[in-house]
Amino acid sequence: MTMANAIYRAGTGSDYPKISGFPMSDSKLKRISVHLLFWLFYVLYDTMNTSWGEHDYFDFSQIHKVWANVPLTIGVVYLNLYGLMPRYLYARKYVSYGLALVVVVVAYALVTRFIGYQFWLLWDRQHAPHQYLVEPKNFFVPIRIARNSFRLYPILALTMLIKVLRNSYGKERQLRIAESERHKVELSYLRAQLHPHFFFNTLNSLYSLTLKKSDRAPDVVMRLSGLMQYILYDTNAELVLLEGEIAQLKNYIAIEELRFADRIEYSFQSSGPVERKLISPLVLLPFVENAFKHSLSHELHKAWVTITIKVTGYHLFFNVENSIAQVNTAQPHQGIGLMNVSKRLALSYPGRHELQIKQEENTFSVNLKIQLYEEG
Q1: Residues 191, 162: one domain?
Q2: What domain of life does the native source organism fall in (predicted)?
Q3: Does residue 20 lie within any of the structural domains?
């Protein structure tokens, strides 16, 4: 039996060889590369902006203002991202975070101003501004200290914004993964319930034939073997070929026909292109099994089941109707099988299916519309 391949999931990539005893994974290498590129662009931009300034020429004497402060700027940014923000901001200690950030910014301004003084006085005294030489007390002028912190604000704000957006995206992604895993576990549980449900019902059918020593028992065993193989092995994928699912419907109907040829009339019609169309496994079969089970469970003179499948574009229209004895329609019968498949449809086709189950005086009907997937 040909079946669709399970949806492929790529791995996270193998680890890089160890260097100096430390393993370098693909994700870590990518992260380090992104950080290095970010700081490279920052240094280039700040160098160009500072060295050109308001002039029409490149002033090499101004490069030190950037390069001398780059290590300190990087240190403050990472202290904020991986120290202050996790400890105070994420813990909603906003006042503590604000005070800590002010202390860090003031310290940054003092240190960068000190670095500037040392450069002019020790390494480039001939180009030093006049106030640096004759008025060293200007070092502690508040407005000039504050001005030294101005270059920190844009990079601090930008990195904070990136961090917040990245964390927000990461949380949303983790929630989506957790929800997806929960759905997979629930689907596996529902499928595990469905397998013995089919097997017990079909084995009961075989048992009744062997008691009667019917010649049809070998044919039932052969078809049952194919059905069991499909359920046990071919339905492990998330999606299977629609034509394979329809083939198993016919297989199941043939088993029921062998059992109850003298008690039931059935009609099966299928139209439309089914090639390369994909569907979740064992979505249609429970409705057919339910129709035969309940049409034959009552003392009817002649039971009947009608099954219609129509494929139009990427939509599947599935209708099952069966006869039932007159029962209380205020309490429609929906067994474990129907509740199970209804939950599976809600998980596998959210917003992509419509299911109507109706019970009237002598008729039980199911109408299902599914938006199909395509192979490849």
Answers
A1: no
A2: Bacteria
A3: no
Give the chain's end-to-end CA distance (angstroms, integer).
18
Q: For residue 156, which amino acid is it? A: L
How many domains does the chain divide into? 2
Structure tokens belonging to residue 176:
């989506």
Contact predicate 194/286, CB 8 Å: yes
Q: How wide is the angle at C-alpha 228 spanned by C-alphas 227 and 231, nearest 5°?
A: 90
Tokens of 32: 């380090």
Record the tokens describing residue 94, joined without a space: 């906003």
| Cβ pair 111, 139 in contact under 8 A | no
In a domain, 303, yes or no: yes
Question: What does R_g of the chain's alpha carbons equal in angstroms?
Answer: 36
- pLDDT (mean) for 224-230: 81
Last residue of a domain, one of 172, 207, 223: 172
306 & 352 share domain: yes
CA 197 → CA 8, 108, 204, 240, 268, distances in Å? 29, 71, 11, 20, 23
Where a domain ends, among 172, 195, 229?
172
Share of residues in the chain with pLDDT > 90 (%): 19
Kindly indicate the confidence band of residue 8, based on its pLDDT and cuts at 50, 70 and 90.
very low
User: Residue 6 is which amino acid?
Assistant: A
Residue 324: closest CA among 304, 340, 347: 304
Residues 207 and 226 reside in one and the same domain? yes
- Give the residue numbers spanning the domain of 264: 181-374
This prediction's pTM? 0.54
Q: Say whether both 348 and 214 belong to one domain.
A: yes
- Domain membership flag for residue 21: no
